[in-house]
Amino acid sequence: MQHKTSWIAAIGASALLGVSLSASADDGFADYRERFEPLPHFPPIPADNSLTEEKVELGNMLFFEPRISASGVISCATCHNPALGWSDRIPRATGHDGQIGERNTPTVLNSGFLESQFWDGREPDLEGQALGPIEADIEMAMQLEHAIERLTEFSLYQEKFAAAYPDDEDPISTDNLAKALASFQRTLNTPNSPFDRYLRGDLDALDEQEKRGMVAFVDNGCAACHSGPAFTDSNFHRIQVPGSTDVGRYEVTGEERDMYRFRTPTLRNVGVTYPYMNNGATATLEEAVAIMGSEMLGREFEVDKIDDITAFLHTLTGEMPEFEVPALP
Amino acid sequence: MQHKTSWIAAIGASALLGVSLSASADDGFADYRERFEPLPHFPPIPADNSLTEEKVELGNMLFFEPRISASGVISCATCHNPALGWSDRIPRATGHDGQIGERNTPTVLNSGFLESQFWDGREPDLEGQALGPIEADIEMAMQLEHAIERLTEFSLYQEKFAAAYPDDEDPISTDNLAKALASFQRTLNTPNSPFDRYLRGDLDALDEQEKRGMVAFVDNGCAACHSGPAFTDSNFHRIQVPGSTDVGRYEVTGEERDMYRFRTPTLRNVGVTYPYMNNGATATLEEAVAIMGSEMLGREFEVDKIDDITAFLHTLTGEMPEFEVPALP
User: Cytochrome c domain location, by residue (chains A, B) (predicted)?
Assistant: First the structure.
């Protein structure tokens, strides 16, 4: 029901679309616009996991496959729900047997642009990320060897893995499971948001309030950490939001300096990926802006400023990606 | 990403398509073919719930809406998963907090053709059926008044309910929730299966084995209960399949004669709605055919006959319906 090959056409065109068209136009904010980068149509593709149609199709199937969970009803798409901004819109992730985790589910949208994965950055890339939630006791609670056994039972998966990894003797492996899921996720990007159109020269794509919000976003220092095309430096910063005792990256490194540090989350599509913060305790974007002002920047934003910045952040919601609801075997 | 209005065109055309085109053709099985009815494109629409585009769109949203469950992560689509034949492909339904119910999840495909709903027929129609799983402690575990409160929080639902029920003062109600879900489900039909094409005159739509299976299906009495366009008489028959102690319809009526009686399940798409039986303990269609032969018909089918009937049953898999993965508020 979708155009399967459109992402292939798009990846070919994305280099062109990355070029700014706005050189001659000016709405008085040229200096500000130049600080930002439009979202490319595709993130970097790692040399050891080329993006092929076969892997993306397989990854799409696996993303929706609940039978690689212990209960048989939880898939990646349960918490990363395409109907809910590829997240879950509840404070903290709910997984196997209704267990509730400690952290808010990050959206998978544009996750290929992040230079580390998970709130604590414990994996460097999507290949490393993909298997974690399958194994985690409070998420899908499935031993990877059992997941591989289940997939191997289906002749359709035997075919699709063989097609995606034609040089492998045993193509159904944990490595290839991770690579296929990562490949699919690298197609889940949201280009052409109003802000991207603005950066590319459509100066009417943002209204006056949204432009004021852009200025406030820069002038108040938000852009220091929320930088780059995905509005994240992929770096770790110390924050304890209301209600959180989570030690963050300290759990990964054991180093004192990493206490309470979390990776900067992307702001792309932040308007549709509520609630906010590592513990999901912040319901609205206005509250989130106020908290970031006071906790990270030491500023008590006035209501007008909060509204302006919030309006700007809503312009970062892009075109939702195409995908298949696969017919699983 | 789909053609929103195609079901409207289809409902207009369905009367035409219901006409048999095969009057002049004959492959030697005319007497058998005449015992069957092709699946109409649409089931009967009740007078008090007209099928409108607005209700279907709203019902589509609600079907995928997990926030009308207590956990916030279970929707109708969790167990009635479009990727899995609009069922779950596990033996027994798994719901709130990982609780496992007593019965296998029936597919919602073509459920509008059934004259009673649930394995025990405790509701007469889809309007009656729709609210049960939301409330059930082992499914979505949500009090209906809380579901209504949650939906009312979203301005988009306020708009969509008002558009679907323009004459209602308080359009967000349990009645209208049920009507919208029922309306959406009435669009989830699977016409144009190989067998339907065969009945309409494409005599090559079935191969020789499948035709032998059709003959065996009639001659052995399967068609006595699996009758009508959806291959069910919507009636109740006594059966205790291996491993089941479920008393079935007795739970509804309390009448001794209803002990162990279950409503005949549809055989439409039975090839993609495994596992089988009220307890889901039967993994393959071949086993299911053998069990039905011995338990219901007092016949021990030979392997060849089982294979023929199974081949025939696979011809009942039709075209999967179009639907939206909605953008939820």
Answer: 208-317
Instruction: Tell me if residue B208 is catalytic.
Output: no
The DSSP element (H or E) to which A30 belongs, if any, is helix A30-33
Helix axes A174-185, A144-152, angle to 10 degrees: 80
Q: Which two structure tokens, joined as six digits, stand for B319?
A: 């075209």
Q: So what's the pLDDT on residue B18?
A: 46
* Mean pLDDT value across chain B: 94
Q: What is the mean pLDDT of chain A?
A: 94
Assigned fold of A29-42+190-314:
Cytochrome Bc1 Complex; Chain D, domain 2 (1.10.760)
Task: Kindly report the backbone phi and psi dihedral angles of residue A11, in degrees, each rounded to the nearest multiple of 5, phi listed first.
Answer: -65, -30
As a whole number of angstroms, the distance between CA B50 and CA B55 comes to 9
Q: ipTM value of the model?
A: 0.89
Domain A53-185 part of CATH 1.20.120.450:
no
Range(s) of chain B covered by CATH 1.10.760.10:
29-41+191-314, 53-185
- Which residue from B2, B73, B326 is facing A88, i.e. has the nearest CB? B73
The predicted-structure confidence for A106-159, as pLDDT tens digits, reads as follows 999 999 999 999 999 999 999 999 999 999 999 999 999 999 999 999 999 999
Catalytic residue among A127, A139, A210, A287: A139
Name the residue of chain B whose CA is nearest to A327's CA: B83
H/E stretch holding A15 reads helix A6-17
pLDDT tens for B276-315 read 999 999 999 999 999 999 999 999 999 999 999 999 999 9
CATH of B29-41+191-314, picked from 3.40.50.720, 3.30.420.40, 1.10.760.10, 3.40.50.300, is 1.10.760.10
* Nearest in space to A105 (alpha carbons), one of A234, A289, A278: A278
pLDDT of residue B26: 87
- Contacting residues for A107 by C-beta, under 8 A, at least 6 apart: A80, A85, A86, A87, A266, A269, A273
From chain B, which residues contact A within 8 Å (Cβ)? 1-2, 64-67, 71-73, 78-79, 81-84, 88-90, 94, 96-98, 272, 320, 322, 325-328
Side chain identity at residue B262, one-letter code:
F
**pLDDT, mean of residues B205-215:** 98
- Determine which one of B57, B139, B210, B287 is catalytic: B139
Mutate to test the interface with A, among B58, B60, B84 (most CBs of A within 10 A): B84
SS3 A12: helix
Worst-scoring range by mean pLDDT, A176-180, A215-219, A282-286, A322-326?
A: A322-326
Q: Which of B66, B322, B328 sits opposite A1 (nearest CB)?
A: B322
Inform me whether the pLDDT recorded for B253 exceeds 60: yes
